[in-house]
Design goal:
The complex is a heterodimer of chains A (260) and B (166). Chain A has helices at 2-22, 32-60, 66-71, 102-123, 129-157, 161-174, 179-182, 186-193, 204-217, 240-254. Chain A is an all-alpha fold. The mean pLDDT of chain A is 96. The relative contact order of chain A is 0.16. Chain B folds into 2 domains: 5-83, Fe-S cluster assembly (FSCA) (GMP Synthetase, Chain A, domain 3); 93-106 and 123-163, no CATH class. In chain B, the strands form 2 sheets. In chain B, strands 4-7-6-5 form a 4-stranded mixed beta sheet. The longest helix of chain B has 14 residues, at 55-68. Chain B starts with a helix and ends with a strand. The mean pLDDT of chain B is 90. Classes of the chains: A mainly alpha (260), B alpha/beta (166). Chains A and B meet through helix 2, helix 4, helix 5 and helix 9 of A and helix 5 of B.
């Protein structure tokens, strides 16, 4: 059971953290259509997270609930990829600040959706029937996220000098974080051994194919990888997750057991 | 009152979708089954999109409709098999079109992710629900709700929603 719980939490936290992050565009989108698109992508992601948290709560039993899992765990208990918690802009130092950069949002959505489309497709055959059912639904949704982010990646990369330079910079910044996809955590290894999870390395060739074809069309260069491999899925996060959770969790924590 | 399965179906026959009130839950394929469970009748519904905010409302609507008719039945949510727009009835699709929403095409059979994302050889036109022209253009993959895309007709110049195949 524990193998399933840890693996499901990883999937759920991925969906919730990116859903919350992308919801920052709600009311602030670069154009109205994209404002609506990101809000809809977030709705899908938060919906997927809810289904997964409900399943975890059922498996844990007792007083576990989706709200407790989402609102009453702290940073080190979250199992999402570090990639998904980063802000919508490039790296900053000191007290520097930056406005939201849509290229960063698009590049991240593309890299992650390409992975999840392949993973949800493979998880339709999970030994856990409930997870397989969630995967079948999520696959239908993530394909539209992938199509949307891919179209915009091409539009920005193969667009103006400014949009090309900014999307290349976003790609250079974010791409090394995808190394975390291919480094197994103990929770993933246990889930794969139990037939519940999927070994992502079996999907890497397809992911590379989707990414390389899109980057070529977008006239963007695939950055080199190497160096630090993030460990968000093991609970080791960047400084950004704490701020994101503080905003998301503050209302529920100020009014525990509140119902509205 | 102990109702029959037919009576439950009849009671829910005209119950409309809260977001698209011209089409019924049955025509949308959300109302899956009425069956005899161990503790009485069960009405099985299935969610559309995972995050669809209308699902809670739909469950409440089913429950209150049955209660108003004095029928006692449990509402059960079932994920598998996953809802698909292919379950939408022909009459339901026609109602959507008349309402100004282009109905969904058939979902492509056995379409893998890699195939879905590669450029299709031929893009199936989405006819304008207002003037019928096939000369239309997608303006956004996401419309007023997650289940719809935003299109524009190049002939009558009207924008319209397209219910995406799911």
């Amino acid at each position: 059971m524990s193998a399933a719980v840890d693996y499901l939490l990883h999937l759920a936290d991925n969906a919730l953290v990116l859903g919350q992050r992308n919801a920052e565009w709600c009311g602030h989108g670069p154009i109205l259509e994209e404002d609506i698109a990101q809000s809809n992508v977030s709705l899908d992601l938060i919906g997927q997270a809810r289904l997964l948290y409900q399943l975890v709560a059922t498996l844990k039993g007792g007083d576990a609930s989706e709200d407790k899992l989402a609102y009453f765990r702290d940073t080190h208990e979250f199992r999402n990829y570090t990639l998904l918690e980063l802000p919508h802009h490039g790296p900053l130092s000191g007290y520097a600040s930056s406005s939201l950069d849509y290229g960063t949002t698009i590049v991240r959505n593309f890299l992650y959706s390409a992975l999840m489309a392949l993973l949800w497709e493979a998880l339709e055959k999970s030994a856990n029937a409930d997870l397989a059912a969630i995967a079948a639904k999520s696959l239908k949704e993530v394909r539209y996220h992938l199509r949307h982010s891919r179209d915009w990646l091409v539009r920005l990369g193969d667009g103006t000098d400014e949009s090309h330079a900014r999307s290349q910079a976003s790609l250079d910044h974010l791409f090394p974080y995808t190394q975390e996809f291919w480094a197994h955590s103990p929770a993933e290894a246990a889930a794969v051994a139990a037939g519940i999870g999927v070994d992502l390395n079996t999907l890497k060739a397809d992911w590379d194919g989707i990414v390389d074809a899109a980057l070529a069309e977008a006239t963007l260069q695939r950055p080199a990888t190497g160096g630090y491999v993030p460990e968000g899925k093991k609970g080791v996060h960047s400084e950004h997750l704490g701020f994101l959770l503080a905003e998301m969790q503050s209302l529920a924590r100020a009014h525990p057991n509140g119902v509205w | 009152m102990t109702a029959t399965i037919e009576e439950v179906w009849a009671a829910l026959e005209d119950l409309a979708d809260p977001e698209i009130p011209v089409i019924s839950l049955r025509e949308l394929g959300i109302l899956r089954e009425v069956r005899a469970g161990a503790e009485g009748l069960e009405v099985v519904i299935t969610p559309t999109y995972s995050g669809c905010p209308a699902m809670g409302q739909i469950e409440d609507d089913v429950r209150s409709t049955l209660k108003n008719r004095g029928i006692s039945a449990r509402v059960v949510t079932q994920l598998a098999p996953a809802w698909t727009t292919d379950w939408m009835s022909a009459a339901g699709k026609e109602k959507l079109r008349a309402y100004g929403i282009a109905p969904p095409h058939q979902t492509p059979a056995g379409s893998s992710v890699v195939r879905f994302i590669s450029k299709p050889a031929k893009v199936e036109a989405v006819p304008c629900p207002h003037c019928g022209s096939s000369n239309t253009l997608v303006s956004s993959h996401f419309g007023s709700t997650a289940c719809k895309a935003l299109y524009k007709c190049q002939d009558c110049q009207e924008p319209f929603d397209y219910f995406k195949p799911y």
